[in-house]
Design goal:
It is a single chain. The protein is α+β, with helices and mostly antiparallel strands. The chain has a single domain, classed as Alpha-Beta Plaits (2-Layer Sandwich), CATH 3.30.70.20. A 3-stranded mixed beta sheet has the order 8-1-9. The protein is globular.
Length: 309
């Protein structure tokens, strides 16, 4: 049976920290804050300066009116990414794509919806990450580097679509999400598995042309006669056509403005959190000093004052 530690034990542990050790930790925190600011600025710059034009970047079109809910896309995603089978209602560390059914209370209206990373043109998750673990690639997909991740989960709070998920099945959980199968030459696994034709991969320009042709050829079929993701939140690389209102299938109401402001909120918290941690360590170090240590510190301070006088 585990016994509760006494205050004396804890004090002894903390008071073993030397001033030199404390300064090292504080210096590391300061350096981390500087690096976080630099990474954020780099992310902002790289998001608006791409080698590949937006219309030529990789994208995916989902037409909900074609979707029959077969969930072959889910199976293909799990197989291609070597993910565990699980029964979940939301995206998770082992579920990068998910089909859900919306149905009105009176049963007169229904639609399937594919949940996955939207691969935003200006991703809030990239801006909010203090260590650069998330990156908007030149080809379009938003990629994640787990070796850089510190598990702060700012990206989870910054994303307006609630996409990044924590992989709680691991002893050291990290973020997990769709990467649009960026390394496949034949397009995302989910799209190649979709026999009803609800998913089409291609360049963003090509897919927007196809979506708009469908809207023009079928008056009144598609909600608001527009493509979600063309301009919403600054645009996405996962484009959606729907026969019902976008908010009914779980899409947030966004203006045409870019969404990194969502990320800025999370990023602004970084200095306060790390600064607060440094302040707490300073107070803890001071509060747990023994009487002898306090006396020695006071004596040394007096001597230093005498030297400068």
């Amino acid at each position: 049976m585990m016994t509760k530690k006494t205050n004396n034990t804890c004090n002894t542990c903390i008071s073993d920290i030397t001033r030199r050790d404390f300064l090292k930790v504080t210096g590391a925190i300061t350096g981390g804050l500087t690096a976080a600011g630099a990474l954020t600025n780099n992310a902002l710059a790289s998001s608006s300066d791409r080698d590949i034009p937006l219309e030529d970047q990789k994208a995916l079109l989902y037409d909900a009116t074609y979707c029959v809910g077969c969930r072959e896309c889910e199976l293909a995603c799990k197989e291609d990414n070597h993910l565990k089978e699980e029964d979940v209602d939301d995206l998770s560390g082992n579920t990068f794509t998910l089909i859900k059914l919306y149905q009105s209370e009176d049963g007169t209206e229904s639609s399937f919806r594919k949940y996955q990373c939207m691969h935003c043109v200006e991703p809030a998750c990239v801006i909010s990450c203090p260590v650069g673990a998330l990156e908007k690639s030149d080809e379009g997909p938003v990629l994640y580097e787990p070796l850089k991740c510190i598990g702060c989960r700012y990206c989870m709070q910054a994303c307006p679509y609630g996409v990044p998920a924590y992989d709680w099945s691991e002893s050291y959980p990290l973020i997990a999400k769709c990467d649009l199968c960026y390394d496949r030459t034949d397009g995302p696994a989910c799209a190649t598995a979709c026999t009803p034709g609800a998913l089409i991969s291609g360049t963003r320009g090509e897919l927007l042309k196809i979506a708009k042709e469908r809207i023009a050829e079928n008056p009144g079929k598609y909600y608001d006669d527009r493509v979600f993701g063309e301009h919403d939140g600054g645009g996405t690389s996962f484009l959606i056509l729907s026969g019902v209102a976008f908010d009914k299938i779980g899409l947030p109401p966004l203006s045409e403005d870019s969404i990194p402001d969502y990320g800025h909120t999370a990023t602004k918290a970084v200095p306060y959190i790390f600064g607060g941690a440094a302040g707490f360590m300073a107070l803890a170090y001071r509060a747990t000093m023994t009487a002898e240590e306090r006396q020695e510190l006071g004596k040394k301070h007096s001597e230093e004052k005498g030297e400068t006088a």
